[in-house]
Amino acid sequence: MTVAHQTERRLRVVCDGEQAAVLRIAIATRNNELADVPFGRTPMFAVYEVGLDASSLRELIEFAVPPHRCAADNDNPDDCEGRLDARIAALAGCQVLFARCIGEAATAAAMKAHIHPIELARNETVVALLRRCQAMLATNPPPWLRRAVGSPGAIAGARNGTELAGGVRRGADPLSVTATAVGGR
After folding, report:
1. How far apart are CA 185 and CA 38, in angstroms?
2. Which position among 7, 45, 83, 120 has the lowest Cβ density within 10 Å, counted as fewest Cβ atoms?
């Protein structure tokens, strides 16, 4: 028996004005306040567009809670066919994925879809992740981020020598303490 793993509900935010977004990120979350869920068990992805000065929620993608038989210790993976593909397909257009834990198969699938997975070392607030992304864009972005946004010129508008929200200064590595990039690109 194959279980269908489709998006249950997809809510999009419609805005009057457009911001200069540089990066589209997905965060595995239970409540859109805390990134605290493994990729494969998350009931929701919050999708944000992040620019140098602002970020905005663009989508909430909800899934039915996967049955226990889709757990990592499952003896019959055929029961879970399509779950991973449905989750990756739902994140089309995102360049970065944050989750509390990301398995090897999910990491490979995300990278194949040009989504850079970042496994968090501990639970993080969504606000803190958004600020870290802004700081990372405004400082010296790592090579994988420059590739993800398409070109170094996409980030060229960063202010020189300014302090960012949360007291992060240029040149700091905002993700090094709390997150680990999964795989390499």
Report:
1. 21
2. 7
